[in-house]
Design a protein that fits this description.
Blueprint lengths: L2 E8 L2 H31 L7 H6 L1 H7 L9 H24 L16 E4 L6 E4 L7 E5 L3 E6 L7 E10 L2 E9 L12 E6 L3 E5 L4 E3 L3 H4 L1 H12 L11 H35 L2 E5 L3 H4 L6 E2 L7 E2 L3 H14 L1 H15 L2 E5 L24 E3 L6 E3 H12 L9
Parallel strand pairs: 8-11, 11-14
Antiparallel strand pairs: 1-5, 1-7, 2-6, 3-4, 4-5, 6-7, 8-9, 9-10, 12-13, 15-16
Helix pairs in contact: 1-4, 6-7, 7-10
Length: 403
């Protein structure tokens, strides 16, 4: 199986400057390749420039500009061009599907934060020995950079990526052939229902509270964004040091919330796979769930619109994003595979409206956010637990009688 490891880098001052130059030069390559594609499509009879055409030009580009492009790894530059090609393919796919196109944009230096090395040993080398407490990664043009390796790397290192987050640098290793670590069987099974009032509810009736990391840090983030907004709009070269510190503070708070949310997802998923052999969950389409409602034109007043519940939907969307369902389900799937557990996704339709005792489906069954009362058989229970029970029933798990 595949596994990714993320470690903090400890570069020297000179190495940090060289890492910044790598990002700057690869960003310049990305923008130049995007400009070539735009010009070819607009001015040369809508000619399409592909990855193979641009990759063939790399040799000439490196010879023309040896100080900026010639000193970096050839394979890492190819990876940057593949990154642009992937963005263009996604753009054309959205156009054909009738979705919002979202044409690839030029990247600023602060928005281009990752450089990929497709193969360990080609422009980079992961240097780690089991008994050596100090690990290093060798990067072409930078040297041997110290790595804060907090856990052992298992499997075969396939790709290496360098990423900048604020003032910190990280190395990301993607490994193949990572051995699974199956856990002993427990004989327990469950279905889970994701929610906003509770992070999740199991079919046994256990409620895990929602941490609401975004809501708890909302005031501090609002104050930081308010302070940033007070600075007048200026060009990059005219911005002050105070403006830079204000930008960094906003970014730091966003990173804090993201780390808290990911940490909670890891701990919750680990507890689930240690407790249950089989876990059933709803196959959620989160992108559709958080989509804003379409406007409703007023037929009696052209140019006016009727209320469409957008304000209430925005609050629900914010709660869904804050809960981080997608992050949790992705981590749960990975940990279940590694631990030898079985994960079963089921159809989420009407799980909160179906009576687990008699099977009657009605929107009137759920009277409130917490209470479920079947209008046909009178079965009453917690609404979130009913959803988890229905998920487990659809997965075919053996459950006690709930009637």
């Amino acid at each position: 199986m595949h596994h990714a490891y993320k470690f903090l880098l400890r570069p020297t001052v000179r190495q940090a400057a060289a890492l910044g130059e790598i990002l700057r030069d690869h960003c310049s390559l990305y923008n130049g390749a995007l400009q070539e594609r735009r010009d070819a499509y607009r001015h040369v009879s809508k000619t399409t420039v592909r990855y193979g055409d641009q990759s063939a030009q790399l040799k000439e580009i490196r010879a023309f500009d040896p100080e900026r492009q010639g000193r970096w790894s050839f394979s890492s530059q190819q990876a940057t061009l593949r990154r642009l090609d992937k963005a263009m393919q996604a753009f054309f796919r959205r156009v054909k599907a009738g979705e919002k196109p979202g044409y690839p944009r030029f990247r600023g230096v602060n928005w281009f934060d990752t450089v990929d090395f497709p193969k360990d040993g080609d422009g980079c080398r992961w240097d780690s020995t089991p008994n050596d407490p100090v690990s290093r990664v060798r990067l072409q043009g930078v040297g041997h950079v110290r790595v804060h390796q907090h856990r052992a790397v298992k499997g075969r290192v396939k790709t290496v990526s360098i990423k900048r987050e604020g003032r910190q640098w990280y190395v990301i290793l993607v490994c193949d052939d990572v051995p699974a670590e199956p856990l002993p069987a427990t004989g327990a099974v469950c279905g889970i229902d994701m929610g906003t009032a509770h992070f999740l509810t199991t079919s046994q009736g256990e409620h895990l509270p929602s941490p609401r990391h975004g809501k708890r840090n909302a005031d501090a983030l609002a104050n930081a964004q308010r302070a940033l907004k007070e600075f007048p709009r200026r060009k990059r070269e005219n911005r002050t040091a105070k403006h830079g510190r204000a930008v960094e503070k906003v970014a730091r708070l966003h990173r804090k919330v993201r780390r808290q949310r990911t940490d909670h997802a890891h701990k919750t998923a680990l507890a689930m796979v240690r407790t249950y052999d089989v876990i059933a969950h709803e196959r959620l389409s989160i992108a559709n769930m958080v989509r804003a409602p379409k406007p409703k034109p007023d037929p009696e007043m052209p140019g006016s619109f009727l209320p469409n519940g957008a304000a209430a939907k925005a609050g629900l969307n914010k709660s869904i994003h804050d809960a981080g369902w997608g992050v949790f389900l992705g981590i749960l799937a990975h940990k279940a595979e590694s631990a030898g557990r079985k994960l079963i996704p089921v159809d989420p339709r009407n799980t909160s409206r179906t009576c687990p005792a008699c099977g009657h489906v009605s929107g009137e069954n759920r009277t409130t956010q917490e209470k479920f009362e079947c209008v046909q058989c009178g079965h009453t229970a917690n609404a979130d637990q009913v959803g988890a029970l229905n998920v487990a029933i659809r997965a075919g798990l053996v459950l006690p009688d709930v009637a």
